Amino acid sequence: MATEIERKFLVAGDFSKEIYSSQRIVQGYICSLPGRTVRVRIRGEEGFLTIKGASDEKGLSRYEFEQKIPLKDAEQLLTLCEPGVIDKIRHLIKAGEHTWEVDVFHGANEGLVIAEIELTSEDEPFEKPDWLGQEVSGDRRYYNSMLIKHPYTQWDNN
């Protein structure tokens, strides 16, 4: 089984000078139940189907299966998804031995910027860029599947 290990942080500074690649992502959820999600994603001109299991108690690790699918299939599957869509620009930034994925959200989640790093183990050391803010790993509010149901622009703190 493939296990995804990632840490998530809010972004609290300017990262723009460090970007080496950017791509628009649009995604929806066929299933977004607690403990399992089935996601359809269009990243650039490619389609993907992803199944994720429940996160561990710390919210750092979970089962993940991802399969590339034809773009036309992804576009059709998006019409079957639950209401709501995630629309974001993903920027890639190299820091030390790792690549950070910085997602700048649009639409109903406008104003939210999250940085993620994938690790090979939960205790793997990594370089923390100056623009990183508060860690939100394990905070379900920041899961994309939750942002569809409870968009960032509707949170009380906005």
Write the layout of secondary structure elements.
Blueprint: E1 3-11, E2 19-33, E3 36-43, E4 46-53, E5 61-69, H1 71-78, E6 86-95, E7 98-105, E8 113-118, E9 132-135, H2 144-149
Antiparallel strand pairs: 1-5, 1-8, 1-9, 2-3, 2-6, 3-4, 4-5, 6-7, 7-8
Short description:
The chain has one domain (3-154): Hypothetical Protein Pfu-838710-001. Helix content is 9%, strand content 49%. The chain contains 2 helices and 9 strands; from the N terminus they run E-E-E-E-E-H-E-E-E-E-H.
What does the model show?
With 158 residues, this protein is mainly beta. It has one domain: Hypothetical Protein Pfu-838710-001 (Beta Barrel). 9% of the residues lie in helices and 49% in strands. The protein has an eight-stranded antiparallel β-barrel. It is globular, with a radius of gyration of 15 Å.
Distance between the terminal alpha carbons, to the nearest Å?
39 Å
Find the count of extended strands (DSSP E, 2+ residues): 9
Largest sheet: 8 strands, antiparallel, barrel
Query: Could you say what the CATH architecture is?
Result: Beta Barrel
Low-pLDDT windows of residues: none
Neighbour order of strands in the largest sheet: 1-5-4-3-2-6-7-8
Percent in helix: under 10%
How large is the share of residues in beta strands?
A: over 45%
Characteristic terms for this protein:
Hypothetical Protein Pfu-838710-001; 158 residues; mainly beta
